[in-house]
Design brief:
7 helices, 37% helix, alpha/beta
């Protein structure tokens, strides 16, 4: 899991382009099998055996450096990626975030778009009603702008509890992801799957 690329003002969520290139170079070795995140989830649901060291690359939030810096490199290596988008910063036309036109362009070029709430709140602190509002509003925005509702969800800040798990389940997402490190197997909680968070450190 990544957030920002070549944005050194944000070291806790940024990765340098040299580091990112090193990662992609490592993932391109024969030891790894890089596939889309949805393919990994579908493989568990269909009992498809995945090769050892199968990984997916994900990016959270929707910062501008995805399209200016990360995507050109990912394309060079022909790696699939899932970008989890919070809708409010996109709708606010924040300069450091992608626009809907750019998201549509990425989607057209093969990037998978995942759900990441509307306002990027600490969801476990919200009431049941407010969590549902976050999901329903963002789902409407995805549908209007991208003609579909994402099938995968990532919790803002990676935070969730049983209340959020149960609500996410009701909205029929195939899987939802935190930011705690770990591997996925058939015994995992598919409403709170781990990802390895990578940054400058």
């Amino acid at each position: 899991m990544y957030h920002r690329f070549g944005e050194s003002n944000y070291p806790s969520t940024n990765i340098t382009l040299d580091q990112f290139t090193e990662h992609l170079e490592e993932f391109s070795k024969l030891d790894y099998n890089v596939v889309s995140l949805e393919y990994i989830i579908d493989s568990f649901n269909t009992e498809t055996i995945l090769p050892k060291n199968t990984i997916a690359i994900t990016i959270d939030d929707g910062h501008k450096s995805i399209i200016t810096k990360a995507w050109p490199l990912l394309k060079q290596y022909n790696f699939p990626v899932t970008v989890f988008i919070s809708t409010a910063p996109i709708d606010a036309k924040s300069t450091n975030y992608l626009s809907w036109d750019e998201i549509r362009q990425l989607k057209k070029e093969g990037v998978d778009i995942g759900a990441h709430s509307n306002t990027h709140p600490h969801m476990y602190k919200l009431s049941t009603e407010d969590i549902k509002k976050e999901i329903e509003f963002s789902n409407k925005r995805y549908l209007k702008e991208l003609n579909e509702v994402p099938k995968l969800f990532a919790y803002p800040f990676g935070e969730a509890n049983k209340k959020t798990f149960d609500i996410i389940k009701d909205y029929k997402f195939k899987a939802a992801f935190g930011q705690h490190s770990g591997v996925i197997n058939e015994t995992s909680n598919f409403n709170y799957l781990p990802r390895f968070s990578l940054n400058e450190k």
